[in-house]
Every structure is written in structure tokens, then in C-alpha cells.
Amino acid sequence: MASTEKQKKSTTPRAKVRPAGFPTRDQVMEFITSSDQPAGKREIAKAFGLKGQEKIALKALLKDMADEGLIDIGPARAFHKMGGVPKVTVLRIVDVDDTTLIATPERWEAEGQPAPRLRVVERGKRGALTIGDRILARTEEAGRGWVAHPMKKLAKASEELLGVVEEGPKEQNGVGKLWLRPVDKRIRRDTPISDAGTAKPGDLVLAEPVGRPPRITARVTDILGDPFAPRSFSLIAIHKHGIPHVFSEQVEKEAVTASGLPLHEDKREDLRHLPIVAIDPVDARDHDDAVWAAPDDDPANPGGYRAIVAIADVSYYVRPGSALDREARKRGNSVYFPDLVVPMLPHQLSSDMCSLRAGEDRAAMACHLIVNAAGKVTSWRFSRSVIRVAAVLAYEDAQAAIDGAKDHALLEPALRPLWACWALLRRAREKRDPLALDLPERRVVLDEWGKIVSVAVRERLDAHMLIEDYMIAANVAAAKALEAKKAPVMYRDHEPPSRDKLVALKDYLATFDIDFALGQVIKPSTFNRLIERVGEAEEKPQIMEQILRSQTQAYYSPQNMGHFGLALGSYAHFTSPIRRYADLLVHRALVGAYGLELPAPKGGALPDRTALSGEDYENMGRVGEMISQHERRAMEAERETVDRYVAAFLAAHVGDLVDARITGVQNFGFFATVEGLGGDGLVPVSTLGDERFYYDEAARALQGVESGDRYTVGQRLQLRLAEADPINGALRFELPDALPQRPSFRKDRARPGIKRGRPANIRHIGSTRGKHKKR
Q: What percent of the chain has a predicted confidence (pLDDT) above 70?
């Protein structure tokens, strides 16, 4: 009988003998689902005190449970309940639903089941998370779904590689190996391509890494086309930074519905009789602000002016809780490239109904200002209005009319009063003494086929400063108007520089023999007086750049921290709701605080209200963090794209001498920028000759041991342009008398002309100056 039972057990599937005291399936399942750590075989064995043969039996049990569909194996060989999510796992944030971030498991291997979407629950201010971020999170089931509690923000994974396919040297079969050349100039090594699909050399592609270090290869997943075709440089930035650039059908449809809303002229203040003008860049794609001014006829305000800053009434069309609203919040802002715009709102709104076109009736939120003879704004009010812009003028044309260089019909009725009122505002600005850093802005000019015509520095005109001061006045009025009603405000905060940055600035200025006292009260005027002391010295541009680097980054928040750079106690963005979500929230807050609601739309296709919703109010802190991050993402993408255009423009000048200025020094060489154009390039120390150099970290300088030749930040010199790479925006320079280095296809696929590791002719001195010895 015993032998018969034994025979039955040996022939019955999965009925294996388990050691005494061995955990049951239920016990193992309970441990896996309740563990706060990844539950791998080792953790399970340790929890139940299993050793030797028991571990072998556990391995078999886990295989059985997996085969039976009870559990699944996830990252790091950890087990979790089939169809569920490990208790602790790596997630990637992929979407935002209203203000709730949505994440999915970074790895999901359950066949036939879609990856779950987890709601991310943040406690306190753990650092703003946004789409594309990776987190280590503790997960739990909640109702019918899953929630994730972030434990740690992880480094971005290089899951997608963006680059250009290149062919290496021809091999015996006449075909060269394919490599992926990265578009990010910080990545100095190419990746061999193991699966190119239909991609050909020269194609711009997206690829995913395959394998494990050090044997990583790339598998091409998407072919984006010719990297030199029009708009490709912008597409590189869009893909690299994960910028949402395609509107869903639902959002586009809702934009069409919203654009058809009646203006309700009878419910709005009619300002169509005023000669309001929009003054914008010559290449502006949308017009969201217009201005008007006239002498104040109130005897109580002698010498004063009345002014109106009219802003597109975007909150009327983009309502809280709508699909348009969710998409705008996800984007945070429009992104402006030289060749295209990625708008925050669909073109039906951003380029049409919410763009203040000349001669067309438009819905506007008007800020009415009273300015006294000293330039102080003494009162303000806000109204929902209907306007008809008299003209859209380029900055240059408005300035030419004021200067008498060009006739314009609106010179007397519109422009002269605007300039006269601005003279008062400027007087008040000078008294406030905000930070005055006049740094050049590069402008890439393209022809109609997307080819580069020129790269130039934008000229700074009085017309620019006029519009800037009117916008600042309206922004301040919006913040103060909401404060007066104790209504929520999305402030634009800019905090004073940190002590660490001030110490670094002091050390930097000391290299120019300029004193900077740390004990003083730091105000914007402190830096202005410093710039005045420098005068027109050769080093003025780099000192201004260093002052800029010492400043903190501005951000959005419902807490008022003031605006250091503008020397203002309360400041909010109100003037660009077409392209900034923060401004849209300020408009909604004004609608609610001052009773500016309009009749609800018919048909129920759009939400009834345009005022700030309860959800908007509750989530302002979280939204402020998100849109601040989106703003930084846009700035980086825009800057990188201009760098690529600059490199493409300079590619025709490789071998020429250029006037340059050193912007950074490292132990492997120094970086320089072409005067007037920008775009940083490296001068490798290996090209400085056979002489030994030492790197003085405190002075940020390289100095030759025998010759004494010194290369330091701010120094101007002529360099030969050795290489200009439009794909990643990188430049490489050489000294004029350096021996030319031909780019070569090297086995390690490092950038041509750049060797790995510390160069043989460099000696690092560190941060203690004066302790080096010549050798």
C-alpha cells in the first residue's frame, strides 16, 4: 500500500515531495503580496528559514506557481502576483490625468495583459516629478486600480537612443559596420547597431539599447528621416526631451467647438473704438497682447496717463476640466524653435481665435491702469472686453515710426501716447533699480525652404523695453488685485542668490581683482553697481554671464517669495495665456475674484464655468512644480536647437579663423564660443602642443609649464574652426598654428580628435592655488 501511494505521488504531475515545515503555496503568495521589498527567491528562502535541499524545493515550487499562472517574475528576478505589480518596483511616469501623475511599470512581461496604470501619490514636496521621470515606488491595490508611493527618484534611463546611422570602414565583404552616432553632444561614444531594420546611413533614427554593459548595441525602432531636412533639428529636440507635440482628435475637436463660442459683446466692455496696437517680433506666430495709452483727463492726476494692456481671453475658451485644459497643463507652455512652434493650444485657438489679429473682433481680458506723473501705477481694474486691434507692428517698425524714420498712420493716435506713458513707467523702473543684465539673444533666420540665412544677435530697441514695462505693470496689477480679494495666485517667484553662488561669484571676480563683499545686503542694485564698476572693460560680457549664473531659477508657486530680479514684492504672469499655463490660471482666478463669469455655453459640449475650479485651487502647488519643470525643458530644447543651427551655419566655415572667447576651462581642454554667434566648442589640450600644462582649478585656467601660455575664462583669442557638427550642435576648435587633425573612424568610436582619459600633457593642481611645481 505504501509503495502504491509512493508510486502515485511520483507519477502525479506537480505533486513533488516537500520537506517538513516547508511553506505552502498560500504562505508563499501571502509573503510575496505583503513584502515591502522585492521578493526574490533569496528573500523568500530567508523569510522561511530554508537551507540546502529546501532551497532547491523552493525553486521548484516557484516554477510550479509561475507555470500555473499564480505568480509572475519581474525586474531583478523578483516575484509578484500574476496580473499585479511588485510591492516595490521601478515605474516610469507616462501621463498626467488632471493633476494626478500616471505611471506604468518600467518592465512588464505578462503576456496578453496591458501594463497597469498606477496613480502616483506624493506626500509633501519630494521634488516635482513629471512625465518621463523614473521612480522607485511602493505599490498597493486601491479599489479597482493601483497606486504608487514614490520612495526615490531615479536617474533617467537611456531607454531610447536618438542618433544618426553611420557606416564604418568597409570590411572584406565590402560593407561597413553600422554605428549610431548620438545627437547629444555630452555622449562622446557611438553605439554599434545590431539591428538597423530598413534604416540607411545618414538616417536620423530612434533606437533602443540591447544587451548589458559593456556589450550594448542598438536596435533601430523608428526612422525619423533626413537629419538635415527642414525642421529636423527641432524634431531632434522634441524627441530627445519628450515634448508632447501631437494633439489628440478629442482635443482638436474641442478646440473647434470652443472657437465657435459667441463673444457675448453685450456682456463685455466694448473697447473697439480705441486704437489698440500689438507690437511683437517680426517673426511672431501669435499675438496675445496689445496696448493703448492716453493722457488722463482726471484733474486729480495731473501729468498722469491711462493705459490698457489687453490680453487674449484664453480662459473663455479653455475651461477647467476640459480636454483642452488637461492637454495645456500637460504641456505647460509653448516651445519656440527657429523653424516651428510646438503650441500649448491647438492652432484653431493659438493662431486664430485667441490671436489678436488686426481688424478682427477678439475676446480680451483688459487690465486698466492709472499711472501718475512719477510713473507709479496708482490703481487698476480688470474687465472682460471685446477689442479690435488697429495694427500689428513689428518692434523695428514701431521704433522706426517713433524715430521719424518711417511714416505710420497710428504714430500720433497710438504710438506717441504709448511712448509718453512709458517714459513715466521707465522713471519708476529706474527708481526700483531691477537687475539690468543686457545679454545678447541669438536669432536664427531661415528662408522659406528652411535653409539658414543668418545667425545674428537680436537688436535691443526701446520698443522692446516699452512692451516689457507695460507687461510687468499688468503682471504686478494682477497679483495685487488677487491679493486684495484674498484669492489664490500663481506667483512667478525669483528668490535671491544662495550664499554658495555668491561665494563662487566672489572667487570669480577676484581673478579680475574685483572685490565683492559677502556681508552686504544683496539687492539687484548690488549687481548693477558692480556692472557699472566694470564699465566697458573687455571682460564685461563674461562678468555679466557669471552674475546671471549666480541667480536662482525663477519658478511658479502659490506661495509668494517675491521677484528678486525685478525688485518686486508681488509678481504673477498674466500676459501670455496662449503660451503659458500659469497665466491661464491667473485669468481664471481674476474671473472668480471679480465676478467676470459669462453665460454658460449651450449644448453641454464644454464645461459651464471659466473661473478657477476647486480642483485648480487644491492643486496649485503641484501644478506650479510641473509647469516650472516644463518651462526648463522647453528652454533647454530651444537652446540646443539654436546650437545645432549655429553649427550648421558654421559648417561652411570649417578651417577658417574665428574670433572667440573662452567660456570654460577643464583639465582636458577649454571651451570657447564664437563672438556674436554663440555655440560652445572644445579646444582639446592634446592640440595645444607637446608642452606640459597644469590645470589650476581655483583660477579655472590652463597654463603651459615651459612657455607660461595661459588660457582662462573670459579670454578673447582667434581660433581655427576644426569641426562643426550640426547633428549634436558641437564645435571643435584648434589654435591657429596647430597641426590639422583629420577626423578618423576610430575603433572606440569616440569623437574625432578627442582621446579618452586625462591627456598625457596635463597635470591637475586642484583648488589650492600656488602649490604647483613646474616639471
A: 84
- Find the Cα–Cα–Cα–Cα dihedral 363, 364, 365, 367, rounded to 10°: -150
Query: Could you tell me which residue, 284 or 539, shows the higher pLDDT?
Result: 284
Strands 145-154 and 118-120: parallel
Query: Which of the two residues, 619 and 419, has the higher pLDDT score?
Result: 419
Residue 696's nearest CA partner among 756, 764, 759 is 764
| Neighbour count for residue 215 (Cβ, 10 Å) | 9
Least confident span in 152-156, 608-612, 667-671: 152-156
DSSP per-residue codes, 75-115: GGGEEEETTS--SEEEEEEEEEETTEEEEEES----TTSPP
CB-facing half-sphere around the CA of 355: CA atoms within 13 A: 18
Q: Are 659 and 718 in contact (CB under 8 A)?
A: yes
* Beta carbons of 473 and 571 less than 8 angstroms apart: no
The span from the CA of 367 to the CA of 292, in Å, is: 11
Which residues, other chains included, contact 457 with Cβ-Cβ below 8 Å and sequence gap of 6+? 440, 441, 442, 443, 676
| C-alpha cell recorded at residue 666 | 577643464
State how far the Cα of 703 lies from the Cα of 770, in Å rounded to an integer. 12
Question: Bridge partners of 164?
Answer: 181, 204
DSSP 687-742: GS-SS-EEEETTTTEEEETTT--EEETT-EEEEEEEEEETTTTEEEEE-TTSPP--
Banded pLDDT at 73 (limits 50, 70, 90): low
Q: Which residues contact 518 (CB under 8 A, 6 or more apart)?
A: 499, 502, 503, 506
Query: With contact defined as beta carbons under 8 Å apart, do 644 and 236 qualify?
Result: yes
Say what the alpha-carbon torsion angle 4, 5, 11, 15 is, to the nearest 10 degrees. -170
Residues 259, 318 contacting (CB under 8 angstroms): no
Closest among 342, 343, 341, 345 to 319, alpha carbons compared: 345
Angle at 296 between CA 291 and CA 297, to 5 degrees: 140
Q: Which amino acid, one-letter code, is at 518?
A: L
State the Cα–Cα distance between residues 261 and 249, nearest whole angstrom: 19
CA distances from 722 to 82, 189, 254 (A): 58, 19, 52
> Residue 500 corresponds to which cell in the numbers above?
554658495
Alpha-carbon distance of 44 to 20, in angstroms, equals 17
What is the pTM assigned to this prediction? 0.76
Q: Does residue 694 surpass a pLDDT of 50?
A: yes
Contact 201, 179 (CB under 8 A): no
Task: In whole angstroms, give the CA distance from residue 658 to residue 696.
Answer: 26
The SS3 call for residue 180 is strand
Distance between start and end Cα atoms, the chain: 92
Tell whether the torsion through CA atoms of 653, 655, 657 and 659 is positive or negative.
Answer: positive
Cell, residue 765: 593642481
672 neighbors 719 (Cβ within 8 angstroms): yes
pLDDT digits (tens, 9 = 90+) for 456-505: 777 889 999 999 999 999 999 999 999 999 999 999 999 999 998 899 88
Distance CA 694, CA 765 (A): 6
Residue 202 CB neighbours (<10 A) = 13
Give CA–CA dist 134/113, Å, rounded.
22
